[in-house]
Design brief:
- With 339 residues, the protein is α/β, with parallel strands linked by helices.
- It is 34% helix and 16% strand.
- It has eleven helices and eight strands.
- The chain has an eight-stranded mixed sheet with strand order 1-2-4-3-5-6-7-8, with helices on both faces.
- The radius of gyration is 19 Å and the shape is globular.
- The chain starts with 28 loop residues before the first helix and ends with a helix.
Length: 339
C-alpha cells in the first residue's frame, strides 16, 4: 500500500500580522494549546431549556442523527440558531462543543449540538459512520427545520473534521436554505496534507491517540460485519484506516481519491454565504499551507484568518476567559445581524 509523504507547515512570517495572538499561561505553544481541551473538563452546566431532537437522513438508510437543542433562558433579539458540528471522534459533549454552546447561550442564542452518524447518541440510531464529505447529512438537518424554529436563520460552526464537512456543504447549498452564515475552526481543508502531518514522526503520540479513538468509535457499532471489524481493528495508521475501510465503504477508490473528493479547500471559491474560516499557524495536526492558498481564491464573502498561535481547537488567549475563536465568531455573527 502506498503511504503519503510527510508534509510541513509554512514559516510564521507568512501569516497575516493582523491575526496576532498571545498564549494564555500555562498553555504556551501549539501542543499545549491543543492538549488543554483534553486536560481540563468543560463547564458542566449549560444555562438553557434543553430538548433532544432526531433527524432522519434522506438516503433511504433509515439512519438518524441526534442533537441537543438548547434555548437560552433570556433570548436575545434577532439571533440565529447556532448549529455546532463536532470533529473526528467527537460528539455533542466534546469540550470545545460545550464551551462554544455555553458562550452563545449566555449571549441569548439558541444552540443545536449535533451528533453525526455513529457519534454520541447517534450511534444508537444510525448504522452508518460519518466521514470528511458527509455534507448531505448536514443538508438534511437544515431541511428539517421550519421557519418557526429558525425565524432569524441558522449560523453553523464546524470544528476540525466537522469544519471540512461544512465547507463541502457550503460550496453546494440547496436553494432556499436557512443558513445566514458559517464558520470553521481548525478544519483539515486538504485531508491528504492533514494525514501526512498527523503521521509525521513528531506526532507519533497524537497519531496513536487518534487512531485508537477512531477504531473505538467505529467498533462500537453493532452494524459492522466480521470482515469490517477485522479490517478496522487491523489498520496500522490513519491512512490505512481511510484506505482500507472509510474509502471503500463510501464509494471512493482509495484513500487518495477520498481525500481529493472531500477536500473542503476545493469548495471555497463556490461559497455564497458569509463565512469565517479560522486556523492557527502552529496547529500540530493541520498544516497552514492550504489556508494561505485558499486566501488567494476566496470570494469576498469568505474571510480566512490565520492566527500566529492557538494550536488545534485551542485558541486560549492571554487576558480572556473565552477562546479567541468564540470571540471572533461572535463578532462575525454580530456584523451579520446588524447589517
Amino acid at each position: 500500500m502506498e503511504q503519503p509523504e510527510t508534509g510541513s507547515g509554512l514559516p510564521v512570517q507568512d501569516v497575516d500580522p493582523a491575526a496576532e495572538f498571545r498564549d494564555r499561561a500555562p498553555w504556551w505553544g501549539g501542543d499545549l494549546q491543543t492538549l488543554r481541551n483534553h486536560l481540563l473538563a468543560p463547564h458542566s452546566f449549560l444555562p438553557s431549556h434543553s430538548l433532544t431532537l432526531e433527524f432522519r437522513m434522506s438516503d433511504g438508510s433509515g439512519d438518524r442523527l441526534t442533537g441537543s437543542l438548547q434555548r437560552p433562558i433570556a433570548p436575545a433579539a434577532r439571533s440565529p440558531l447556532m448549529l455546532l458540528i463536532h470533529g473526528l471522534t467527537g460528539c455533542e459533549n466534546s469540550t470545545y462543543v460545550r464551551e462554544t454552546a455555553r458562550y452563545h447561550l449566555t449571549r441569548g442564542r439558541s444552540v443545536l449540538r449535533l451528533n453525526m452518524r455513529g457519534a454520541g447518541r447517534s450511534r444508537h440510531v444510525a448504522a452508518g459512520y460519518y466521514h470528511a464529505g458527509s455534507a448531505s447529512d448536514i443538508q438534511d438537518v437544515l431541511d428539517a427545520f421550519g421557519a418557526a424554529e429558525t425565524g432569524h436563520g441558522i449560523f453553523s460552526i464546524g470544528f476540525s473534521l466537522g469544519g471540512n464537512i461544512l465547507l463541502n456543504l457550503l460550496g453546494r447549498l440547496k436553494p432556499g436554505h436557512p443558513l445566514i452564515g458559517a464558520a470553521t475552526v481548525s478544519a483539515p481543508i486538504e485531508p491528504l496534507e492533514a494525514c501526512q502531518r498527523i503521521m509525521a514522526p513528531r506526532n507519533a503520540i497524537y497519531h496513536r491517540f487518534l487512531l485508537t479513538r477512531m477504531k473505538r468509535d467505529v467498533l462500537a457499532s453493532a452494524a459492522l460485519s466480521h470482515l469490517e471489524r477485522w479490517t478496522v481493528a487491523g489498520a496500522k495508521s490513519v491512512y490505512a484506516f481511510d484506505d482500507e475501510w472509510v474509502a471503500p465503504r463510501n464509494g471512493f477508490r482509495d484513500a487518495r481519491d477520498y481525500y481529493e473528493q472531500t477536500a473542503g479547500a476545493r469548495h471555497v471559491p463556490d461559497i455564497t454565504v458569509p463565512t469565517l474560516i479560522l486556523h492557527a499557524c502552529n496547529d500540530p495536526w493541520i498544516p497552514v499551507r492550504p489556508y494561505l492558498s485558499a486566501q488567494r481564491v476566496a470570494p469576498p464573502n469568505v474571510k480566512i484568518v490565520v492566527a500566529r498561535s492557538g494550536g488545534h481547537l485551542g485558541f486560549h488567549e492571554e487576558g480572556y476567559a473565552d477562546t479567541w475563536h468564540d470571540r471572533m465568531i461572535d463578532a462575525f455573527v454580530g456584523e451579520l445581524i446588524n447589517t
